[in-house]
# Entry
Amino acid sequence: MRLDIANGLSIDESEIEISFIQAGGPGGQNVNKVATAAQLRFDARFTLSLPNPVKARLQALAGQRVTRDGVIVITARQYRSQDRNRQDAIERLLALIREAAEPPVKRRATRPSFGERQRRLETKSHRSATKRNRSFRDPD
# Structure
């Protein structure tokens, strides 16, 4: 089954590996007995579903969620049921891929206006005068 992302992008559900682990936090005895937290793993480097620029932006956006091997790990433990945590992890991955699929806007170089340059020079001279007045001068 394919998961649609955006702009004709989709990934195969077989590329996603989901395992369930024990969640911490409140929940009483149930938390200690049932593995409800979902841990999603997606190998971003070797997926054939995404173009190379999207893969590179995806790994940069994922930050600390990427392992050294290029696997994105998302842990969802917000809900009390496995199914809801599984859906939450998949939605978070798809949102991350959607964000990476948008190409960055190129910056257009601009020059500071005359007024901005004047204000900058005025603040510099004011700061310089403040520091000059702080210095100790011998009256001799």
Summary: The CA atoms of residues 93 and 103 lie 18 Å apart.
